[in-house]
Structures are given as structure tokens and as C-alpha cells.
Amino acid sequence: MLNSNSEPLLINGLIGRSAPMLEVYRITRKVASTSATVLLTGETGTGKELIARALHELSPRATGPFIRVNCGALSESLLESELFGHAKGAFTSAIENRTGRFEAAHGGTIFLDEINSVSYQLQVKLLRVLQEHEFERVGDTRTIRVDVRVIAATNVELQDEIVAGRFREDLFYRLNVIPIYLPALRERGDDIVDLVNFFVRRYALANGFPTPRIAPDTMRFMQQYDWPGNVRELQNYIERSLVLATSNEITPDLLPAHVRGLAPVRIGRRASEDLESLCADLVSRRLAQLGEDSTDVYNAVMNVIEKELLLQVLRQSQGVQTRTAARLGINRNTLHKKIEDHNLGSEAR
Fold it and tell me: Which of 139, 142, 135 lies closest to 88, judged by CA?
């Protein structure tokens, strides 16, 4: 964990010297020089992409490409073409041959973010690439061989996905050669001061402001808060506070009420209780609206409940669809369709 000068083996671009983060740095440096497949796990906003980039930049492949693919952002058919490319005429809009991300990453690293979003059928093709280092483009018969290091990331427990029948056990073991867990911000409270100071300097410089001081009470509130959105949530609140500040000091009133303990954080059991009460009220009101002669009570009521459930969980998850889907226990593509059906696009990002 320490070098010969008793200094922590920190990694450029990553902030924090807490024990959990020092362990992340140690493992990252240890495995970076190998070609072993790495599985990054941890909540949304914990810095998995930063570690993936560090693994690439500290490796002998650093001069090669680093290709990132957000598996949760594309449908199954689009993701297959994105990963493996396609031949001209493979489908209606395939007007020319296209190189896929695995081909583009030859000699370098491919980072598969939100690997849990990959369909069960496409997982078979991924397994083959990991084992045989070869694949065919969509609509082609020519086999392409690649030399690529694979780093995957997930914010859900893949073993739970295996039990639920959504993730292949053999693919999990092939990905989980070197697991690296990224701790949530609440697990690394000693790093909050360093993170706050870093983001204050960054956003002051970006906006041409003098670097403000942090009021002691402001720092205390931030150290006491649980940060369900992790570093990304902290980063957003720092930027907001700096932009709204009317003096050269970040005062507590610039933080959201729930960070200061003045409003509930709608996460976990409290949120479930609130939602149960809300749903009961919605059912009562909807039944009253329908009247006794209605013949479609079930669908009418369930539509109202589903929309409110999606709305509440999206807000709890700061609009992050991957996190929302994980909390609801549904596929990312299913969530996207439901968001469109209920016209909730403004709540999602």
C-alpha cells in the first residue's frame, strides 16, 4: 500500500486517502500490468470509469485505444452492432460495412459499462469473445480475431441477476477474474474534505471565480450526509453552491435542505413507507373517479400506481435510469419503455 518512501500509491485523477480507497489503488496498480479481465462493482457515481481508465493507462496497452461502451444505453440489436460491427446489407439501414467497438479496441482496452444490461442472448457472444478472442460481424461469416483487454462494470449484484435468470453464470465467472469493489462515499468519509476542496477549486477556476472558503458548518453537514448519489452527487452540489454563492464563502444555506437534515432523504425504508401511503391514497381517489359502473378498474388503477412508482424512484435516484432500473428490479430497456409510456422523460437523464 506504501512505496519505499512511505507515500501512498495514489493514482492521478483520483481523490482520497481513506483505507478503502488505498486498497482500490493497491489492487489497480497490482493488476494493471497484466491482461487479466477486471470486473468493477459499486454504486453509481463511485468512479468506476476512472479506475477503468487508470487500469488502461498504467498497462502496457496504454499506447493503444481505450474504448468505452455504455451497454445500458442501447437496445439489444443496436448494442450487438455497436460491439461487433455489421456487414453491408445485414439489415435495412446497413448501407456499408461497419467496424465494431471490439475491433476498434484491438491492441488496447474495451470498457463495458453497465454489463448487467446486456441481454441474455447477447451474453453468449460476449462469452465467446472473452474465451476465444474472436467473433463475426452481424450479417457476416468471416471470423475476426482481436487482442483486447476487457474491463466490465456493474452497479448491481451480478450473482442476484444469475439467480433471477438474467445473467449467465459462465459469463460472470469469466468476467470476475479480478474483482475490484469501489466503495460508496459513505464508506470513505475521511475523503470528503479532500473531495470538497478539489471540486471547489475546479469549479471556481472553470467559472473564473476566486476560490471561496468553506464555512465550518457547511463542511460538517457534508461530512454527516450519507451521499446516496456518491461522488457525483457531491460534485453537483458543490458546483451549485459555488454558482449561487453571494460572497467568497460557501455557507450552509447553499446546500439542499436534505443535506442539512431539514428534509427527509427519500431512500430506503422511509421512502417505502411514504410510497405505500401515497399509493393507498391514489387508489382511493382513482376508484372514486371511476365509479361503480367501471369494467376496467384493475388496469386503470395499476396504470396510476405504476406511473407514481416510476416517478418516485426516478426522483430518489436523481434521474439515473440504471440505478432506477436496479431498484425496481427490471431491465433498463423495460424501464425506458415505461418512461415513454407515462411521459416521464423530463424526470430521467
Answer: 139
Report the C-alpha gap between 11 and 17 in whole angstroms: 10
- Nearest Cα to Cα of residue 321 among 117, 184, 153, 118: 117
C-alpha dist (Å) from residue 207 to 198, 211, 249: 14, 10, 15
User: What are 135's strand-pairing partners?
Assistant: 144
Mean pLDDT on 77-90: 77
Cβ contacts of 205-213, under 8 Å, gap ≥ 24: 207/242, 207/243, 209/242, 210/248, 212/242, 212/245, 212/247, 212/248, 212/249, 212/250, 213/248, 213/249, 213/250
**What is the phi/psi pair of residue 63, to 5°?**
-80, -10
Long-range CB contacts (within 8 A, 24+) of 323-332: 323/43, 323/44, 323/155, 324/348, 325/72, 325/117, 326/116, 326/155, 326/156, 329/164, 331/117, 331/166, 332/72, 332/114, 332/117
Name the β-bridge partners of 189. Answer: none
Dist CA 75 CA 333 (whole Å) = 7
HSE value, Cβ hemisphere, 13 Å, CA-based, for 217: 8
The H-or-E segment that residue 217 falls in is helix 216-224
Neighbouring CB atoms inside 10 A of 145's CB total 11
Query: Which residue shows C-alpha cell 456493474?
Result: 154
Best CA proximity match to 151, nearest among 49, 12, 14: 49
Distance CA(175)–CA(19), nearest Å, equals 26
Q: Please list, residue by residue across 222-244, b when 16 or more beta carbons sit within 10 angstroms of its beta carbon and e when fewer do.
A: beebbbbbbbbbbbebbbebbee
pLDDT per residue as tens digits for the range 86-135: 776 555 666 677 888 999 999 999 999 999 989 888 999 999 999 999 98
Tell me the C-alpha distance between 85 and 10, whole Å.
Answer: 37
pTM comes to: 0.71
In this structure, are residues 125 and 135 in contact, taking their beta carbons and an 8 Å threshold? yes
- What's the burial of 250, exposed, middle or buried (CB within 10 Å: 0-12/13-18/19+)? buried
Which residue reads 451474453 in cell numbers?
123
- Distance, in Å, from the CA atom of 345 to the CA atom of 349, rounded to the nearest integer, reads 8
